[in-house]
Amino acid sequence: MTLLQKEYNDVAYISGPLLFVNAASDLAYGAIVNIKDATGRSRGGQVISVTDQNAVIQVFEETRGLDLATASVSLVEDVARLGVSKEMIGRRFDGLGRPIDGLPQVVAEQRLSINGQAMNPAARAKPEEFIQTGISTIDVQTSLIRGQKLPIFSGSGLPHNELAAQIARQAKVPGHEGDFAVVFAAMGLTQREVSFFTQEFERTGALARSVLFLNKADDPAVERLLTPRMALTTAEYLAFEHGYHVLVILTDLTNYCEALREIGGAREEIPGRRGFPGYMYTDLASLYERAGVVEGKPGSVTQVPILSMPDDDITHPIPDLTGYITEGQIVVDRTLNSKGVFPPINPLPSLSRLQGNGIGKGKTRADHKNISDQLFAAYANGLDLRKLVAITGEDALTETDKLYLRFADDFEQYFIGQGDQDRSIDDSLTVAWGILSKLPQSQLTRISKDAIDKYYGTKMDEMWKGSRSLG
């Protein structure tokens, strides 16, 4: 890290977290600077815009107390960097990469730009390896594949934090347990949520294979823009330098996008949809596209971004743009949550576009895809019949219709509502067969005869029947 002797003293004005400095056109975009006030107090900042007239600097702390006449700016580093090391595994950091676990600063093996390096599209390998999350609805019906980016769409008040912690605790690449790591980045957390994640990771032992970046709601908005980039830089280093299969969980991207809108407003930019910046698509893509598998590299980066949809509106700009960039979505459902089902994942609007690449014979099980399709069709039929019953009553239904109604109830209670159990893919398929076996064989039109002969009639033992919700 080198210091430039030159100081910039012509601070024109301050707008929220932004500093406008005249005669600073030689500062580079993305440079890290040090801002001093008359008392000698220092604040960090990053250059986010440079023109012939001025440079715009995001201040990493509050700008209260900065005086235009006495403030000075000096260069610290040409670009925002993070010191990375394998020893970061098992550690907790704030949104700027500073330790918050009471342990010393990490001795960096490298200092890497948090913007990452562009991944050559020609060097990308096709994602084809199944990641087991231990959650039946995800593993069977919206399978997560190594190198994929698969977001979770949730809503305010829904248990996406609990779901994120469960995925972080249970996820694994079968056969690669020893070189699997989780990088967890949380943005805009309340103190209660910080305590929850900290205690959950420590209580379950998940911290031993995880790196945590925790940005709190009362931290500067600017810091929220850096937190996911700190996490992804760490993930890329562990994956492509040390061969880890890294699962990156980012929560909550809605807080990130709102910080982006706040900074855009302070810069007096022309707003786009719902007041968000017009470049939000590009900005989100710069995060999501840092997932993948690279030819010749043993490691990989897989992303599970989590975002809470304002007013449960899936057409809101944040989930809408996210859906364009990523390869599917997992939808957390408010109706299921109100029934006490956990995790309340609705498989009908959920989708994994890469599922077919990583499941089937030799990867999970030969009947996996057919079971997924049959569950989807039977559950959709059961929900349609629920609506019909609300109008006509059950007396108008055939015996087969009544079986589908009971199937929908069992599916929600035993398959979706597994609580905090960690199920292997074989366990999940066993539960699925146990529920499907209550339907007549003639109704299993999406499953091969060989699979029906082998698995039909599977009984769920008491272990699965006790897997109701967390309440």
TrEMBL record:
Q: Which residues form the signal peptide?
A: none
Q: Does the keyword Protease apply?
A: no
Alphabetized Pfam families for the sequence: ATP-synt_ab, ATP-synt_ab_N, ATP-synt_VA_C
- Highest taxon, organism lineage: Bacteria
In this protein, which residues make up the domain named ATPase F1/V1/A1 complex alpha/beta subunit nucleotide-binding? Answer: 134-352
For whether the record's keyword set contains Translocase, the answer is no
Protein keywords: ATP synthesis, Hydrogen ion transport, Ion transport, Transport
Q: What positions does the domain ATP synthase A/B type C-terminal occupy?
A: 358-456
Domain (ATPase F1/V1/A1 complex alpha/beta subunit N-terminal) ranges: 14-68
Protein family: Belongs to the ATPase alpha/beta chains family.
Which purpose does this protein serve, as stated in its record? Produces ATP from ADP in the presence of a proton gradient across the membrane. The V-type beta chain is a regulatory subunit.
Q: What is this protein called?
A: V-type ATP synthase beta chain
Recorded source organism is Deinococcus malanensis
List the taxonomic lineage.
Answer: Bacteria, Thermotogati, Deinococcota, Deinococci, Deinococcales
